[in-house]
Specification:
Elements lengths: L2 H22 L6 H4 L19 E2 L11 H10 L8 H14 L7 E4 L1 H13 L4 E5 L5 H8 L4 E4 L9 H6 L5 E7 L11 H10 L5 E5 L9 H4 L11 E6 L12 E4 L2 H8 L9 H10 L3 H24 L3 E2 L6 E5 L3 H10 L2 E2 L10 E5 L3 H16 L1
Parallel strand pairs: 1-11, 3-4, 3-5, 5-6, 6-7
Antiparallel strand pairs: 2-8, 7-8, 9-10, 10-12
Length: 381
């Protein structure tokens, strides 16, 4: 075949392919085939806080995702057309290896919210859910709307989770005990040995769930966490997330560590399918990124210290914090929330009847400085 014939053959083949394509689409030419590269979409403006707002209300970590995670997202997005099964398996294996578990003991989910909701839904049929009066209860109230029964236990006088009162509240009707450690919104963590003693005293037939979303930010993560109890207790679930220390709240990635039997139960209640490519790619790339994790924690703790200093300078007090937020005692949390909003600083309003407690999250230092200045003006006015 001569070069000329070869070219004619190729052109003919291309024309035939175009004809088939036009026939399949009703005779119209595909816009994708002829359109130039589109201009930038400015999609980034749709995510994150609006310009000018100091976002200190959501416990987000503005220092993530890590550079490795961002690179992995960029590389993986070209395969976004495909389901993410192999990526899901890879991250599951990585998590299992770190904690000396089998992959069948790990449940990866769309943020820890999903697997926490799965636990509440799947276990509510075994009895009521026992929980503190004040904690991040979004997932148990979700189950409550689906028919679950909640039994709440008041906090202690120090605003901490009262393990003695929790133990006294356990009755035959309880099927699940839900604890958030460190607790949200109080930011206080339970002593690791005290929590282990409590869990060991619970009837093995009752499931204990510990939400450890902020565990990496505590002063002593290995001591404070109860992951080590998984080796001796089948009905224990420990949940973690990539939303906080990893700075991936918008990428929706979390997981549960538990027994193989419990993991299989939770898997049956998952509402997502196979995970999302961007989140999994970022999680795989940054899970063992120790330099970024140190950087992230250092910056969060710097902001936390600045908030505590601002609180003291304003003549206020706060609970000891082991997380990425601070719970501040104020005369009127809703009034402070409104004043901050006028200054374009977002913090949390009061949580229900706790009207004298205001939660403020850590963030970038200029935003924390705006909070500090507004706090000072408000209480000196």
């Amino acid at each position: 075949m001569t070069p000329a014939l070869s070219r004619r053959a190729l052109i003919g083949s291309a024309a035939a392919g175009t004809t088939l394509g036009l026939a399949a689409t009703g005779g119209s030419r595909s816009a994708l085939a002829v359109s130039p590269v589109p201009p930038p979409s400015n999609a980034a403006a749709l995510f994150g806080p609006p310009a000018g707002l100091a976002q200190l209300s959501r416990n987000e970590n503005p220092y993530g995702p890590s550079p490795k995670a961002r690179q992995a997202i960029a590389e993986a997005c070209t395969n976004g057309a495909y389901y993410a099964d192999r990526g899901l398996a890879r991250l599951t294996d990585m998590i299992a290896e770190r904690h000396s578990l089998s992959a069948k003991q790990v449940v990866v989910s769309s943020g820890s919210t999903e697997v926490l909701s799965c636990a509440s839904l799947s276990l509510s049929g075994k009895g009521a859910i026992l929980c503190p009066e004040l904690f991040w209860d979004t997932t148990v109230t979700y189950a409550e709307r689906k028919g679950a029964t909640l039994k709440r236990v008041p906090l202690g006088k120090d605003m901490g989770i009262d393990l003695a009162a929790m133990k006294a509240a356990i009755t035959p009707e309880i099927g699940l005990i839900h604890i958030c450690n460190p607790n949200n919104p109080t930011a206080m963590s339970l002593d690791g040995d005290a929590l282990r003693t409590f869990i060991r005293a619970v009837d093995p037939a009752i499931t204990v769930l510990v939400d450890e979303a902020y565990m990496e930010l505590t002063a002593r993560p290995d001591y404070t966490s109860v992951v080590d109890l998984l080796a001796e207790r089948e009905n224990l679930i420990v949940c973690r997330t990539f939303s906080k220390i990893y700075g991936m709240a918008g990428l929706r990635l979390g997981y549960a560590l538990t027994s193989e039997a419990m993991a299989a139960r939770l898997q049956g209640y998952l509402m997502s399918f196979g995970g999302n490519t961007a989140g999994l790619a970022a999680g795989i790339a940054s899970y063992n990124d120790e330099p970024f994790l140190r950087y992230s924690k250092d910056h969060i703790l710097e902001a936390r210290a600045a908030i505590l200093e601002a609180v003291a300078q304003a003549g206020l007090t706060a609970l000891p914090s082991d997380a990425s937020f601070v719970y501040v005692k104020v005369p009127d949390a809703d009034a402070l929330h409104a004043a901050m909003a006028k200054a374009q600083v977002a913090i949390r309003p009061a949580y229900g009847p706790w009207t004298q407690w205001s939660r403020v999250s850590t963030g970038k230092m200029p935003d924390v400085a705006r909070y500090a200045e507004t706090l000072k003006r408000f209480y000196q006015a």
